[in-house]
Structure formats: structure tokens, C-alpha cells
Amino acid sequence: xxxxxxxxxxxxxxxxxxxxxxxxxxxxxxxxxxxxxxxxxxxxxxxxxxxxxxxxxxxxxxxxxxxxxxxxxxxxxxxxxxxxxxxxxxxxxxxxxxxxxxxxxxxxxxxxxxxxxxxxxxxxxxxxxxxxxxxxxxxxxxxxxxxxxxxxxxxxxxxxxxxxxxxxxxxxxxxxxxxxxxxxxxxxxxxxxxxxxxxxxxxxxxxxxxxxxxxxxxxxxxxxxxxxxxxxxxxxxxxxxxxxxxxxxxxxxxxxxxxxxxxxxxxxxxxxxxxxxxxxxxxxxxxxxxxxxxxxxxxxxxxxxxxxxxxxxxxxxxxxxxxxxxxxxxxxxxxxxxxxxxxxxxxxxxxxxxxxxxxxxxxxxxxxxxxxxxxxxxxxxxxxxxxxxxxxxxxxxxxxxxxxxxxxxxxxxxxxxxxxxxxxxxxxxxxxxxxxxxxxxxxxxxxxxxxxxxxxxxxxxx
Length: 462
Prior knowledge:
By secondary structure, this protein is α/β, with parallel strands linked by helices. The chain has helices spanning 83-88, 109-120, 135-144, 162-171, 197-214, 235-239, 286-289, 337-351, 377-389, 415-424, 454-461, and strands spanning 6-11, 17-18, 33-38, 77-78, 93-94, 98-103, 126-130, 154-157, 176-180, 217-222, 242-248, 253-261, 269-275, 278-281, 300-307, 310-322, 330-333, 357-363, 397-399, 402-403, 409-410, 429-433, 447-451. The radius of gyration is 27 Å and the shape is elongated.
């Protein structure tokens, strides 16, 4: 008689395991424990006197070894031909790695991976397993995007069973695979409906074990919840090698960021543009975030922000009009409203500026600025005063710096790389915080103007 499977209760938020159900998890959340059936993994290398359970990589114990007795194999990187994806993965996809890509519906997950699997099929046998659409729908997308692929090495599969997927991978000797999506597949080793914590965890573990044992590279699409986080148990993040996330903006711009990467750093950000040809890599994103207008007009200022380890030049626009209501409006697109209120308060206090106008702020290109990005303070203030007082800021001027509540200009991080980025794009004059000034900035071909207070800035830009 077969031994019944062990039952555990796993928190869907933190991944903590419990032998029995309870109302609150140690992480503080209530009613997040879900039932999971645990099954042991058989392995012929394990002696009958000692049972072992395979890990996420498919290995077993075998006792400890001295470090000089272990063979070291350097991770092999493979360039995909998608520049921004290779940048985020620090030199390409690592052979034999398992990667998760997540994002909001319509972010471009399927579009990006359809392009990727088509490119990889030109070099090795590749498979795209879709559990959410028919094969004809996938082929229509490939034809619509005009992707180049090798028809003899690109396999399509519509399947929800993990065991059937692994069987196809083994039968066709697939070396690159895409699973769309992990919430739609099920495995016999767990109970529950598709997308439940037990199914998601067990399915990801089975796929990861196969990939590690057979040197197969795999990308798994994962859905997100209402908080824009991966749906399912948190242990899903620990199983895979890399976790990529696509952030959507109000426009066509997509930002790809690695929240986890075992084979590289997580500071690199990739910029894509969604168009009728799919997700196109943007090698020079600063050109998108600058309007390209040659006409100088009030209410515009250019600054340099930092996304991961990349410096991006962008244009901040401001429009002030006389209010027709009892209270003036404050409208921001891509910016934090609380920061706008704080900056207007600083202007009233230290420059005696009266702002009884409707004020509208916009970021060219549809990019959303993180609240932690404070280097845009001076550019915001400059754009506001430019529109309010009807003076123009030359388009060859770049302004960056954080503004404190007492009117001082605080230093920003990575000042030298930001200045170099602005100088490379032909800016003649660059305003920076006084404490960010460095001698290495002198030979860049631009006039570097360090400033200490907001009063110095106003005297220089007017």
C-alpha cells in the first residue's frame, strides 16, 4: 500500500512552512496559509538505507567535500541579439539557467520571449510551451512581428502538464524553452488547482530540476498580483536563478529590471519601446526622453536621472496658467505630487514666489520618476519658474541637484557619471551641486557650474 503524501501548509507571502494550519503566519499576515502536498523525489544514486530529497538543482547530499576536490565550471553566457536583454542579464543568458519574467498584463512578456525563442532557434532546438493560447495564435504573432526563426528547430507546444512538457523536452532534445505561464501548468506531485501555491512551487521545482540536470535554459512567465508582485508563494523567487520584471509606463516605454540574478548584478536596467514590430531595444534612451524640439520656450528644463547603473537625460515640462477656480490645481504626470508640493513650499519660503496659478508638470517620453530620485528637484524648480516668469532655459543647459527644506542644494549620487552623460550629448553648461564638483569634470568640453543654494541658481538662470 502506497504511503500517503505528506501535507504541509505554506504561507503565500513569505513561504514559511507549517505542519498544520493556523490563522496568522510569523510574517504577520492573516489567512495566507495554503495546503500543499509534498512528494519525495526518487533518485537511483541514493542508497536504500538512506532516503534523500532532491534540491531545486536536482542534486543530493553525498556528504561534505573539501573545496579543492570540487570541480568548478565557469557559467557560459550566450548573447541573444536583444541588446537591452543582454545588458540586464550582464552579458547574455546563462546556459542551463532558469529565469522568471513577470509584468502587468500587456507589458510585453510574451512578445519579448517570442522574439527571444525565435532568435535562439536559429542556433539550437527551442520550444515555446503556451498554456494560455492556441498554437495558431502564437504562429500568427510570430508572422505579425516578422520574426526570423529556424522552422526545423522551433517547436510549439500547447500543454498544461509539467510531466508532459518534460517528456517533450527530453524527446526532442530541447536546449532552450519558454513556459507560458507557471500559473497555468500543473504537476502530479501536488494537489490544488492551477495557480495555487502548491502547484506553482512543485511545478517550478520539477522544471528547475530537469533544466539543471540536462543543461537546458528556460524562461518562465509569471503573473503578478494587484501589488505588481509575482503571484504565488515567495519560494518561487528562491527556486529560479534570475527574476526579471517589466515595468510599464503611460506611453510605449518598457523598463526591464533584474530583481535577482545569480550570474550578475541587479543594477542594470534595460529600456524597450513597444511598437508594431514588438519590443525594440533602445540603445540610446536619452534621445526618446528629450522632446527633440529646436524651439526654445518657457517652462522646460533638462536633467539627468539614474535608472540602475544607467544615466538617462530627460526633459521636464511645466505649464502655469491663471486659475479660474477658487483653489489652484496641481497636476503631475510621471512625478510624485508630494514632492511637487514640497518644492513649491520651498519657493514660497525662500524666494517669496507667489504661485496662485494652475500648475501642470509632465515628463517627456512617458517615463515615471521614482520618489527616491531627488536629483530632479532643481530642474523642477527651474521649469516652474521659467513658465511662471516667462523666461527660457537654453536647451544646451542641463540642471541636476537635490533641494533641501532650508534652500540649500544637496549633493547627488554618481555625480561624475551623470555629468559625463550630459557632456557626451553636447550640453554646453551643466549645473551641479557644489559638493559634487570634481576636477575630472573640467576636460569634458562643457562649462560646469557648481551651486550651493537656490538663490545662486536663480541668479544664474534668469
